[in-house]
Amino acid sequence: MLYNEPSPLEVRVLTRRFGLPNSASIDTYLATEGYAAFRKALEMTPEQIIEEVKISNLRGRGGAGFPTGLKWSFVPRQSPKPKYIVVNADEGEPGTCKDRVLMENDPHQLLEGMLIAGLAVDAHAGYIYIRGEYRYLIEIMDRAIAEAYERGYLGRNILGSGFDFDVYTHTGAGSYECGEESALLESLEGKRGIPRIRPPFPAVVGAFQCPTVLNNVETFCAIPAIIRDGGAAFAALGTPKNGGTRLFAISGHVNRPGVYELPMGFNLLRMINEVAGGVRNGKKLKAVIPGGSSCPVLKAEECDIAMDFDSLARAKSMLGSGGVIVMDEDTCMVKVAMRIMKFYAHESCGWCVPCREGTLWLKKLLTRFHEGQGRRNEIALIGELARNMLGRTFCPLGDAAAMPTISLVEKFYDEFEAHLEGRPCPFEARTAVLV
Amino acid sequence: MADRVKVVIDGRTVEAPAGALLINVARQAGIDIPAFCYYDGLALQAACRMCLVEVEKAPKLLAACTLPVTDGMVVRTETPQVKEARKAMLEFLLTNHPLDCPVCDKGGECELQDAVFRYGAGESRFTEEKLHVPEAQWSPVVYYDAPRCILCYRCVRICDEGLGVRALGVVNRGATSEIAPNRGDHLECDECGMCIDICPVGALTSGIYRYKTRPWEMKHVGTICAHCGDGCKTTLGVYSGRIMRGNNRDRSGINDEFLCIKGRYAFDFTDHPERLRTPLVRVGGRLEETSWARALEIVARRFAEVKSRAGKFGIVGSNRTTNEENYFLQKFARQGLGTNHLDHHRTGDVVSLVDALAGRQDALATTADLYRRKAALVVAADLAQQHPLLAFQLRANWRHHQAHVYVVTPGPVREDSYAVRSVRVPPGEELAGVESLREALRAEPELVILFGGAVKGENVRRLVTFGDSLGIPVQYVCLVDYANSRGAADMGLLPDLLPGYRPVTAAGGSPGLTLPEMLAAPDLEVLWVVGANPLARHPLASEQAFVVVQDLFLTETAARADVVLPAACAYEKNGTVTNTCGEVQRLRKALETPGTKTDLEIFGLLAQRMGLDLGPWRVESVWEEIQGNVPGYNVPSAVLAAGGAAPTYPVNGRIGVNPRPELIRSAGDTLFTSGTLGRYSRILNSVPEAPGALYRS
Question: Complex ipTM above 0.90?
Answer without folding.
Answer: yes
